Amino acid sequence: MITPVMPTYGRADLVFARGEGPYLFTEDGERFLDFGCGIAVTSLGHAHPHLVKALQDQAGMLWHTSNLYRISGQERLAERLVAATFADSVFFANSGAEAIECALKMARRYQFMNGHPERFRTITFTGAFHGRTLATIAAGGQAKHLEGFGPPTDGFDQVPIHDSNALREAITGETAAIIVEPVQGEGGINPVDPEFLKAIRMAADEFDLLVIYDEVQCGVGRTGRLFGHEWAGVAPDIMAVAKALGGGMPIGACLATERAASALTAGSHGSTFGGNPLSTAVGNAVLDIMLADGFLEGVEKKAARLRDEIEAAIKRHPGTFDHVRGLGMMLGIKCVAPVGDVIGAMQKHHVLAVPAGDNVMRFLPPLIIENEQIDEAIAALDAVGAELGS
Ligand SMILES: *Cc1c(COP(=O)(O)O)cnc(C)c1O
Asked: Is 16-34+294-388 assigned to CATH 3.90.1140.10?
């Protein structure tokens, strides 16, 4: 018989009752080190006092008014995102997929407004993940996500990542945009070569296409910079952000230059809940911490130590682990043993990690971890390495 909760996830048999910093606790008080952050969402840990206070204060004042009125928290969050990035304007949504939808619609509409209604296609890359709506599964192009849902939504052309010739050959008179994750997440933690991001930028500029970055997973501090593409120093025209922006409150955002954003005139796009007072109050609280002097530098330093320790552990257990890759606190451990077994074994040692494509285990720890948590994770990695190594 079907469960009341629709069975779309293969869930671990664990129920958490509360969280505190980097730890989660079950109802009977068992403690787990959370190196998944709910898939890169709770990047400041659980029950962060500053976030809790921001939410509580807002909850007692005002929850929702709709976007028919100005929302001060939304305006402030937009101003701060604009000040911190390439962008001039921000549209708020509730999730990553919705932020991507806004980006795709904006790119099509930009071409339409500039006299090119025939340009509606977006070039995507192998290994991509952009969400689970009809348009975003077509953008991701993964057979397992498309199966059984009818003809994929038209308007996406996928090419191999890191192949500049294939990219240029795929551009036609119908192309509007190119979308890429600066660090592919679900695909297996693959940082895109800065040279390839430059090639995308150059091709887009040559053919008047818009560049869309999907920073839903790698954005908001995850890589040790506010946004992942800052490592490469190549800016997009449009960028989708979500996961960590709300620290666990659902929020998504589509950032864009004035040139791109001007295409979405009043009435052309919308969202009932997007950017409401509750979610933007928490989004502002997240930025209070991430933009504080020295915070991201500290993340980068801790991430370097974590990575060194992982590399050393991998050398001790070559039968279980192959190598580590990624940027900052967005790390992928390519496994030799099946990643599902590795994740299950880590769980037995009370460390939560997340699987990804290409037999990779993702470590997405809270950015606030200390050396003590790094040591705990490495101890679990060593134990699992010994258990599963042949
Ligand atoms: C999670 C994710 C999405 C989709 O976000 P949802 O909030 O689940 O809709 C899109 N792109 C990337 C890169 C993601 O990691």
From this structure: no
**CB-ligand 1 contact for 130 (6 Å cutoff):** yes
Output the six-digit token pair for 64. Answer: 């929702």
Tell me: the pLDDT tens digits for 45-81?
999 999 999 999 999 999 999 999 999 999 999 999 9
Residues 6+ away with beta carbon under 8 Å from 369: 22, 302, 306
Under CATH, which architecture does the 51-290 domain have? 3-Layer(aba) Sandwich (3.40)
DSSP alpha helices (H): ranges in 114-193?
134-140, 143-146, 164-170
List every span in the chain annotated with CATH 3.40.640.10: 51-290
- Across the chain, mean pLDDT equals 98
Which of 102, 125, 217, 227 to mutate to test ligand 1, by most ligand atoms within 8 A of the CB atom?
217
Residue 96 in contact with ligand 1 by CB distance below 6 A: yes
Which pLDDT score is estimated for 389? Answer: 87
Tokens of 215: 């920073």
Instruction: Strands of the chain (E only): list them.
Output: 16-20, 23-26, 31-34, 89-93, 121-125, 156-159, 175-180, 183-184, 190-191, 210-214, 238-241, 252-256, 321-327, 330-335, 351-352, 354-356, 360-363
* pTM listed for this prediction: 0.98
Confidence (pLDDT) at 390: 67
- Mutation test residue for ligand 1: of 41, 101, 130, 249, the one with most atoms within 8 Å of CB: 130
Flag whether pLDDT at 234 surpasses 90: yes
Average pLDDT over residues 356-376: 98
Residues of the chain with CATH 3.90.1150.10: 16-34+294-388
